[in-house]
Amino acid sequence: MSDHPEPTTVTVLAGGLSHERDVSLRSGRRVAEALRTSGFDVDVLDADAHLLPRLAADRPDVVWPVLHGAIGEDGALRDVLEVLGLPYVGSRPAACRLAWDKPIAQSLVAAAGISVPASIALPQATFRDLGAQPVLAAAADWAGFPLVVKPSRGGSALGVAVVGETRDLARAVVDAFAYGDTALVQQFVPGTEVAVSVVETGGTVQVLPAVEIVADGGSYDYAARYTAGATEFFAPARLPDDVAERVAKAARGVHEALGLRHLSRVDFIVTDAGDPVFLEANAAPGMTETSLLPQAAEAAGIALDVLYRGIVESVLG
Q1: Element (H or E) spanning 80, and its range?
Q2: What is the radius of gyration, based on Cα positions, of the chain?
Q3: What SS3 string covers 104-158?
């Protein structure tokens, strides 16, 4: 018998068939590299028809889903992992569903006393039943311009548009419908965009430094998120200390209000008055070379292999 214990086995799930497949593959590779540096025995598997038989046969010690889009963030895959009895990194299925549905998340966050933008959710059926033009005219009169239009579910800023005038509103809503059957129309909040990552290691919740996002084109869209050099980041964000503390407190409040676990990323607009306004929460944050959680860890002086080891160990208890 060997005197050396077998290394902990971690299976990283990456890929899938969502619009965010490429991002997921890049994130998965980065997580796997860091975990191997930590000494774990790591496999990377795609989320396809071969996945469940492989997991059932291999029985890894921990599964780390690094899947974006519906399969990674709507809770369904995590339901399956629980049925298989496999420990996994990340939030439980119910919490994933709450964060994935932006209107529900905003309602819960607002109930926790955290500011959210005024918004309305418009299912496709509403346009069909009431007519697109009257509905859009009412939304524009209510909120004024500019407006933000986005799918009610989804990530990576896919289908998100800032609309400055009436003639562009219908197109923005149609584009949002390409990613789901409900569009979220909300008031544009001017200010500084920041992302705050929350991680749980060693039995404690840690809020990493906020990362400030300044997109070259003014909009932190899909291309700005995943094209190196397309966006300027400041980590930590250029916020006064008291505002940074307020933002960190709000991020932890969102993490707890939605029941998130192990890791999350919370996006805010910080107004000129220093008030954080919640935009959305991500239960499966990106882990690519341009993603925000890795940048926040670096700003905190935490090596990714050390951070990811701590997250895996928190799963193992």
Answers
A1: helix 76-84
A2: 20
A3: HHHHHHHHCCCECCCEEEEEHHHHHHHCHHHHHHHHHHHHCCCEEEEECECCCCC
313 is in an annotated binding site: no
Determine the pLDDT at residue 1: 40
Q: Domains, the chain, ranges and CATH? A: 9-89 (3.40.50.20), 97-115+190-316 (3.30.470.20), 119-187 (3.30.1490.20)
33 annotated as ligand-binding: no
Find out whether 200 is annotated in a ligand binding site.
Answer: no
Q: Spell out the residues 6+ positions from residue 77 whose beta carbon is closer than 8 angstroms to its own.
A: 13, 47, 65, 67, 71
Q: Of 18, 24, 152, 291, which residue is the catalytic one?
A: 291
Amino acid at residue number 162: V
Range scoring the smallest mean pLDDT among 31-40, 80-89, 124-133, 276-285: 124-133
Q: Is 20 a catalytic residue?
A: yes
Confidence of residue 219 (pLDDT cuts 50, 70, 90): low
Instruction: Identify the active-site residue in 18, 91, 156, 264.
Output: 156
Quote the CA–CA distance of 83 and 92 in Å, as a whole number: 12
CA atoms within 13 A of residue 113's CA, in its CB half-sphere: 6
Model's pTM, two decimal places? 0.88
Name the active-site residue from 18, 20, 24, 73: 20
